[in-house]
C-alpha cells in the first residue's frame, strides 16, 4: 500500500523489522479511517531508538499540527492538565483533551489530529512511591481506553460565559500516539495493575522497537542532525551525509560503549 511504502521509506536505515513496519502501517490506516472514535498507537522502545522516529512519523502521517503532551503534563495524579480539574475543582484552564483545546489544531472541523504523548512512563513521576506511580501510569492507559471505547470523556472547559464547567467532550477524529520510553515488557507490566483493568485491548495497538544497532545508530544521528538544521531554518534540500569512513569510525566508537 501507499502508506506502507511511506513507512518503509521513512524508517529505512533504522533496522526496523518488516513485521513491525507492517503492523505500524496498519495501525495508522485503522486509526485514520475511524472517525466516530479515536484511534490509538502505542510505541515502546528506548530513547534514541527507532521508536523516536516512528512517533514523529505517526504524527506526520495523521496530518495537520499535532497536540503534544510532555512528561510534565501527566506527572500529577488525576491529570489536571488533561482533564481540567483537581479532585473536581476546575483549574481555570481548558482541559488538554477538551474540544476547545484540540480543535484549534484542526485544518477543518473533521480533520484528524494527533495527540502525541512524549513519554507515558513519566505519569506519576511526582510521587515517591513506585507502586503509586505505576497506578497513575495505569490510570492514564485506562483514560485512553475509555476514550477509545466510548468516543468521549468528561472534562472541564470554559463555556461562552468564560467559566470552566464539566462537559462531555467528543473524542472522534483524534489519534492518541502514546510513546513509552522503555521496553515493551515494562509497559506490559503496567497493564497488569488493577487500575488498568479493561485497558488490555490497547496492547494490540503496540509496536515494540529494540535498541539501535551500531549502523542504525549512526543513521539516527545523521537524521537527528538534519532535523535540527531544518528546525532552525536551513533549507530542507540541504542535508548532512556522513562519509563511509566517518560512518565506520562512528559505528566503531558506539560499539565500544
Molecular structure report:
A hairpin with a 2-residue loop joins strand 3 and strand 4 (89-90). The chain contains nine helices and nine strands. Helices cover 41% and strands 17% of the residues. The protein is an alpha/beta fold and 257 residues long. The termini are far apart. Helix 1 (2-10) crosses helix 2. The longest helix has 21 residues, at 130-150. The model has no long low-confidence stretch (mean pLDDT 86).
Q: How much helix is in the residues?
A: 40-55%
H/E order of the elements? Answer: HHEHEHEEHEHEEEHEHH
The percentage of residues in β strands lies in 15-25%
> Which term fits the overall shape?
globular
N- and C-termini, Cα separation = 39 Å
Radius of gyration, in angstroms, nearest whole number: 19 Å
Structural class: alpha/beta
Q: Sheet bearing the most strands, described?
A: 5 strands, parallel
The average pLDDT is 86
Low-confidence stretches at least 5 residues in length (pLDDT < 50)? none
Which strands sit side by side, in order, in the main sheet?
2-5-8-1-9
The strand count comes to 9
Q: How many helix segments?
A: 9
What are the key terms here?
257 residues; alpha/beta; 5-stranded parallel sheet; two-stranded antiparallel ribbon; 9 strands; 41% helix
Provide a compact summary of the structure.
With 257 residues, the protein is α/β, with parallel strands linked by helices. It has nine helices and nine strands.
Q: How is the topology of this model organized?
A:
Blueprint: H1 2-10, H2 18-33, E1 39-45, H3 50-62, E2 67-69, H4 80-83, E3 85-86, E4 89-90, H5 99-102, E5 113-117, H6 130-150, E6 152-158, E7 164-170, E8 174-181, H7 184-191, E9 206-208, H8 214-231, H9 244-255
Parallel strand pairs: 1-8, 1-9, 2-5, 5-8
Antiparallel strand pairs: 3-4, 6-7
Helix pairs in contact: 1-2, 8-9
Amino acid at each position: 500500500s501507499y502508506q506502507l511504502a511511506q513507512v518503509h521509506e521513512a524508517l529505512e536505515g533504522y533496522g526496523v523489522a518488516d513485521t513491525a513496519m507492517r503492523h505500524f502501517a496498519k495501525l495508522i490506516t485503522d486509526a485514520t479511517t475511524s472517525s466516530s472514535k479515536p484511534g490509538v498507537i502505542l510505541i515502546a522502545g528506548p530513547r534514541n531508538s527507532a521508536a523516536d522516529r516512528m512517533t514523529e512519523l505517526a504524527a506526520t502521517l495523521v496530518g495537520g499540527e499535532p497536540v503534544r503532551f510532555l512528561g510534565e503534563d501527566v506527572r500529577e495524579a488525576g491529570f489536571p492538565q488533561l482533564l481540567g480539574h483537581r479532585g473536581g475543582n476546575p483549574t481555570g484552564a481548558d482541559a488538554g483533551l477538551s474540544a476547545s483545546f484540540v480543535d484549534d489544531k484542526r485544518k477543518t472541523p473533521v480533520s484528524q489530529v494527533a495527540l502525541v504523548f512524549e513519554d507515558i512512563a513519566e505519569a506519576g513521576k511526582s510521587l515517591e512511591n513506585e507502586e503509586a506511580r505505576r497506578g497513575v501510569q495505569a490510570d492514564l492507559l485506562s483514560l485512553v481506553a475509555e476514550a477509545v471505547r466510548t468516543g468521549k470523556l468528561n472534562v472541564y472547559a470554559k463555556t461562552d460565559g468564560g467559566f470552566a464547567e464539566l462537559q462531555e467532550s467528543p473524542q472522534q477524529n483524534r489519534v492518541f500516539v502514546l510513546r513509552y520510553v522503555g521496553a515493551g515488557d515494562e509497559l506490559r507490566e503496567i497493564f497488569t495493575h488493577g487500575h488498568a483493568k479493561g485497558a488490555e485491548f490497547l496492547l494490540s495497538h503496540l509496536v515494540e522497537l529494540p535498541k539501535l544497532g551500531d549502523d542504525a545508530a549512526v543513521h539516527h544521528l545523521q537524521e537527528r542532525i538534519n532535523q535540527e538544521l531544518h528546525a532552525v531554518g536551513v533549507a530542507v534540500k540541504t542535508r548532512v551525509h556522513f562519509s563511509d569512513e566517518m560512518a565506520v569510525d562512528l559505528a566503531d566508537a558506539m560499539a565500544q560503549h
